[in-house]
Amino acid sequence: MAAKAPFEQRKKHIIELLKQGKLLVVNELAKKFNVSEMTIHRDLNKLQQQGHIERTYGGAVPAERMEFEFDFASRRASNQKAKKAIAQEALKFVQPGQRLILDTGTTTLELAYLLKDFENLTVITPSLAVASVLQFSSGIQTVLLGGIIRKGSPDLTGVVAEKVLDMFMVDIAFQGADGIGLNGELFNTDMRIAKVDQKMRKRANQTYVLCDSSKIGKIDFASNGSLAEVNALITDSGITPEQFQSLKKICSEIIVSKI
Amino acid sequence: MAAKAPFEQRKKHIIELLKQGKLLVVNELAKKFNVSEMTIHRDLNKLQQQGHIERTYGGAVPAERMEFEFDFASRRASNQKAKKAIAQEALKFVQPGQRLILDTGTTTLELAYLLKDFENLTVITPSLAVASVLQFSSGIQTVLLGGIIRKGSPDLTGVVAEKVLDMFMVDIAFQGADGIGLNGELFNTDMRIAKVDQKMRKRANQTYVLCDSSKIGKIDFASNGSLAEVNALITDSGITPEQFQSLKKICSEIIVSKI
DNA sequence: ACATACTTATAACAATTACTAACATTTTAT
DNA sequence: ATAAAATGTTAGTAATTGTTATAAGTATGT
Question: Is residue B150 part of a domain?
Fold first, then answer.
């Protein structure tokens, strides 16, 4: 780690770091390239003029970050630990080399965070949020379903999304749900997501529904099917014995996380 | 875990924590980043002003809105005035009620900025950058092509994108180009984009190529067709008379912006 | 309810760290 | 070998961060 980097091989390297989503810090770069901090300052100023970066105090950030804004009203108070625990259980089913569908929703988003460092996976998702989390994971190929972008919503739905799903068969689909009736009926708040969820199950060898216990016994607007059609429900320990008994009649397996 | 990180690094880290649903506590953050609590207070106040969080006594919670970023390296800086002028010319062809395809590229991205306040348009695009610009435009329905997300690249390509294009017919396609040969041949740096560009022309009644003059006479890797297939080339006044004459033989119309 | 103790937030100034500019030195190219 | 470009050094300036003191918010006990 000693030879001084000739010329502006550094720039190439720096731009590479940017593509990986890294933040640039002056003194780290100076050490990395074995040059003085002054040189890094000059490099960064040039890169700024070329429009690659924006300078910040102490370093630099990518010039143009495109970002999507979503409304996540629910996220705040609710059940984050439970969702994480559910995602952990779901993770146990994932093997390297598999192809997955990851549905929209905050619980499946937690699973996306856990999959980040996995090797050799293909993930198909209608969720821009999931795609954003996985975009820099070198071991994961992310396929975004197409479709209409709705303001404040992170997911792509509609005919396009359904058509694209028809192009693939995957090993496992991980779905969310906004409500599960005690008869095992699966609900979404949004009808369009319900349709996409139905289609997902048809394109996967196995389907797991990830749903925290607060939504069990809650019905919602759009029914997309029944727990009878899936391999397992994964939920948290907040599920009551009565709910468990009731759902067990319909669902072949119910996995309850520790938390 | 000792080194102090500058603000931008802390900010990124804090936002990451937010996305994972952690609630922020001032003294924990101070320890985590090895800075004083005063600094964390200042950070959180800044983040509040930027709309990322809401402050609570002793810490902070996520705001309702959450942002997800896609990074891509682009130098919007180079030739930006020319690109803006080209986009202005392209804009003249757009009428309310139309359906458009907007290709990937920095010039078409400029056009997206101009379309933002248009009424009653449908825009189909393979570009996450274009989609992010248009996401909050109430008068525009944005359809994102599906496909594989490549690291550091803002566009969706591949079989999926092409299949989705087959689902639509539009009024106008606005394309970019990475190079145009003096024989009118259209080039892309990326083969996958070349294929998508070919398909776009088939699905549009009219096609316009938006390309700043610096790329005229430059050939690149992947040919996607010829100016003979399009309705017009829109470029800037940097085009030389020789280039103009040469391309005029092939292209039915060449529109030159003032700048 | 009120007052008390306790924690957290802000303000002002001091200390630290990062940035810029000018000049010296090294490296690269002709 | 010389000019040109790039890098390093130093000192001075600007921005951020830390410290202390004071204010404001929360929680408790009577």
Answer: yes
A234 CB contacts (<8 Å, ≥6 apart)?
A: A86, A89, A90, A208, A209, A210, A211, A255, A257
Pair of tokens at residue B79: 């030739």
Confidence of residue A9 (pLDDT cuts 50, 70, 90): confident
Q: Residue B163 in 3-state DSSP? A: helix
Q: Say whether both B49 and B89 belong to one domain.
A: no
A177 residue type, one letter: A
Rounded to the nearest 5°, which phi and psi values hold at B80? Answer: -65, -35
Give the global pTM.
0.87
Spell out which residues of chain A touch residue B129, defining contact as CB-CB under 8 Å.
64, 66
Q: Same domain for B243 and B138?
A: yes
The number of beta carbons lying within 10 Å of the beta carbon of residue B207 is 23
- Using the predicted structure, report yes or no on whether residue A203 has a pLDDT greater than 90: yes
* Residues ≥6 apart with Cβ < 8 Å to B221: B187, B188, B189, B190, B191
Domain for residue A142, yes or no? yes
Contacts B131 to A, Cβ<8 Å:
68, 149
Considering the domain boundaries, does residue B2 fall inside one?
no
- Across the interface, of B61, B68, B73, the residue whose CB is closest to A128 is B68
Residue in the block written with tokens 């300052």: A41
* Domain that residue B24 falls in: 7-62
CATH code assigned at B16: 1.10.10.10
Q: What is the predicted pLDDT for the residue at B191?
A: 94
Is residue B73, in this structure, part of any structural domain at all? no
